[in-house]
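STRUCTURE:
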């Protein structure tokens, strides 16, 4: 309403200006009025941001705060809450909400890493992750300790709010992560959560943390000897669509697709001894916490994907689609097993079968060239869709994807899991 009134004033004012003053004066005064309107708009947007942050904190307290153990203290920031573990020099858990506003948010990374002023005992600092020296020419030389400053609540989840995004760079929200993990598997999991919010246009409750134990290794060169977690977890709760899931991922280069690491919240609670959503009514909580499928969280085109077969369940000389990569260009005949989740008959008449993950994210592809299709008594691109098979041959590298070329239907057999 305020903006509408100001626009009316602008129209009336400029009409008076146009009738009485020279054009240069009119331009100056109109620009001044426009600047005033822009300032008012920015003030209104700041007020709106504050209101959304206030509501977010209320919602987080109402639903998203995990069980608090004796001696723990909740630290509340603009858009995230956490419990800090002084012994491990990192958060035990961080809770936040991804709002649909993240889709249109335009705030860029602030990279203003700094200690958390609300941690009474003092949080981790720069020198827990690297040393830096100022050289004679004014440039800075960094000596890193080999770990990324991994966000628990990712900064990109707050790109709709400059205040919240900046606070996500507190060291209380950082944990030492292997670069291959932080920049790949962990980043893909964070992307998965934001994509879900974008697709469903709902707020998503998130709790993230390291799995902490007493005998963890430490960053010995750091001033506070920060503990290095072996595993991290992240869980998500969608109250609107009655969906929940948790993920436990190792702090290393992860060979398996993201969905492979999905577990139930209930199993994570048993592992940690903590109730993560105690504010939910027991009847509803039990439904949420039993869910363990990643499929509802994936993009529609990826929901046909399947987890690679547990390698311990496969016979000798049989391997799953992730293990196949180990045999690229080894000139060894093996059997690779997986579920056909997407197929293609190319314009040249060649057939491609993607196992476990479909195009364009395929992790293993079977190729049957046109001139070999005469060796098949069925159309493999239709007959094998959705079936779990094992293919026999040599694994090659095709544009970075492990692949196998087969020439006969005898190279394919249906896989039936051992029921014992």
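SEQUENCE:
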């Amino acid at each position: 309403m305020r903006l509408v009134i100001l626009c009316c004033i602008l129209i009336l004012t400029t009409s008076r200006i146009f009738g009485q003053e020279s054009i240069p004066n009119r331009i100056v005064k109109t620009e001044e009025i426009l600047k005033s309107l822009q300032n008012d708009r920015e003030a209104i947007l700041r007020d709106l941001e504050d209101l959304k942050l206030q509501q977010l904190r209320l919602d987080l307290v109402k639903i998203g705060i995990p069980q608090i153990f004796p001696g723990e203290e909740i630290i509340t920031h603009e858009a995230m809450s956490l419990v800090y573990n002084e012994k491990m020099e990192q958060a035990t858990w961080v809770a936040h909400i991804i709002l649909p506003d993240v889709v249109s948010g335009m705030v860029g990374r602030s990279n203003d890493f700094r200690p958390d002023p609300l941690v009474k005992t003092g949080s981790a600092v720069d020198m827990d992750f690297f040393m830096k020296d100022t050289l004679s020419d004014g440039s800075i030389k960094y000596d890193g300790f080999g770990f990324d400053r991994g966000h628990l609540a990712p900064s990109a989840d707050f790109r709709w709010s400059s205040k919240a995004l900046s606070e996500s760079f507190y060291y209380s929200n950082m944990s030492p992560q292997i670069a291959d993990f932080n920049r790949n598997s962990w980043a893909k999991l964070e992307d998965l959560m934001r994509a879900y919010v974008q697709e469903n246009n709902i707020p998503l409750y998130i709790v993230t943390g390291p799995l902490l134990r007493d005998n963890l290794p430490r960053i010995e060169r750091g001033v506070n000897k920060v503990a290095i977690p072996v595993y991290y977890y992240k869980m998500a709760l969608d109250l609107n669509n009655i969906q929940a899931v948790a993920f436990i991922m190792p702090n290393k280069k992860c060979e398996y697709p993201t969905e492979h690491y999905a577990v139930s919240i209930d199993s994570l609670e048993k592992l940690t001894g903590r109730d993560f959503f105690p504010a939910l009514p027991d009847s509803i909580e039990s439904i949420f916490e039993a869910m363990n499928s990643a499929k509802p969280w994936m993009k529609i085109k990826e929901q046909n994907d399947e987890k690679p077969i547990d390698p311990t369940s496969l016979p000798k000389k049989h391997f799953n689609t992730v293990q196949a990569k180990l045999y690229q260009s080894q000139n060894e005949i093996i059997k690779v097993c997986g579920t056909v989740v997407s197929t293609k008959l190319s314009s040249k008449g060649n057939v491609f079968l993607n196992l476990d993950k479909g195009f364009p994210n395929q992790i293993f592809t079977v190729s049957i060239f046109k001139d070999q299709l005469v060796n098949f008594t069925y159309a493999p691109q239709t007959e094998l869709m959705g079936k779990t098979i094992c293919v026999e041959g040599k694994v090659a590298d095709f544009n970075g994807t492990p692949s196998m070329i087969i020439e006969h239907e005898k190279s394919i057999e249906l896989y039936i899991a051992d029921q014992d």
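REMARK: The radius of gyration is 28 Å.
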